[in-house]
Specification:
The chain has 284 residues and is mainly α. The chain has one domain (1-47, 55-283). It contains eleven helices and no strands. It comes from Acinetobacter schindleri NIPH 900. It is a multi-pass membrane protein. Keywords: Membrane, Transmembrane, Transmembrane helix. This is EamA domain-containing protein.
Length: 284
């Protein structure tokens, strides 16, 4: 359980760092770009992928390239959502992207669904709608917040679906992960050079490297928890998602003085109920 706790804490700390960095004038795209430098190095030493024997012909380079673009793009959308909609709603929307992933599993991968899983998906979609609608009466920032929250929800689900499809082709997880991080880093650096003509100052680089450490730690602890609790994956799934939502709510209320509107409160309750239903469905 300590690994799940650590993974959830790192996940929320990533959001806190992005939000506070933006509040202090740091450009999120510079932080996100340098985050992939740390993630690539840590991934190589932690998972020890066999990059020397990667097959040029059998590796799905198109998917890896697509994910190399999608990863920093969705990360940037996450930063925008944190700034406009707040950490509380953003964390819930991010975690409930699993609802769209499961829907894709049904329609694309022909996975059989139990009644409990269908209920969980329905609750999750309703929760996201409640969270989005909680901003509907706001002007400017509220409308943009709805857009960014929706894009984060869809974006993280798309990444999850592409990862599932990539691993189904036989490519090892560690190799896939490392190649994606490397690709995301190279493409992000190219974008910085073209748009800003520099890679950022020492402050951006330092904070970005710390961000990458937290981002990778989140993944590493989560994967390790699944390895140690391989017979009870539902506990890892439910524990991770519930703790991230709870930590996100606490961070929003305590550190950023955010307030729960009635629609957001309903979305939070429905979101937690959705995660519990899906966890039970997975363990059944």
């Amino acid at each position: 359980m300590e690994l799940i706790f650590a993974a959830a804490l790192c996940s929320v700390m990533v959001s806190i760092l992005l939000k506070t960095g933006r509040n202090r004038g740091l450009n999120p795209i510079h932080l996100i770009a340098w985050n992939y430098a740390t993630a690539s190095v840590l991934c190589y030493f932690w998972f020890k992928p066999d990059l020397a024997h990667v097959s040029v012909t059998h590796t799905p380079w198109l998917l890896i390239f697509a994910l190399g673009i999608l990863l920093p793009s969705v990360f940037l959308l996450l930063a925008r959502a944190l700034q406009t909609a707040g950490i509380l709603k953003t964390e819930i929307a991010q975690r409930l992207s699993v609802v769209l992933s499961l829907a894709a599993a049904y329609f694309i991968f022909q996975e059989q669904f139990s009644q409990l899983k269908i209920i969980g998906i329905g609750l999750g979609i309703t929760a996201v709608i409640c969270i989005l609608l909680s901003n509907r009466n706001d002007t400017g920032t509220g409308i943009r917040g709805m857009l960014y929250l929706g894009l984060v929800w869809v974006g993280y689900a798309l990444i999850d679906v592409l990862l599932k499809y990539t691993t189904s082709l036989g490519l090892q997880f560690a190799v896939t992960l490392n190649l994606m991080f490397i690709c995301a880093f190279i493409l992000s650096m190219a974008y910085l050079l073209i748009k800003y003509h520099h890679f950022g100052d020492l402050k951006h680089i330092g904070v970005g490297l710390v961000l990458g450490g937290l981002n990778f730690a989140n993944i590493a602890f989560y994967v390790k928890a699944h390895m140690l609790l391989k017979d009870t994956p539902a506990i890892v799934f439910a524990g991770m998602n519930i703790l991230v939502v709870v930590f996100g709510v606490l961070a929003g209320l305590v550190f950023f003085k955010e307030r729960l509107k009635p629609a957001s409160s309903l979305g939070l309750v429905l979101g937690l109920a959705s995660v519990i239903c899906l966890a039970y469905a997975m363990s059944a």
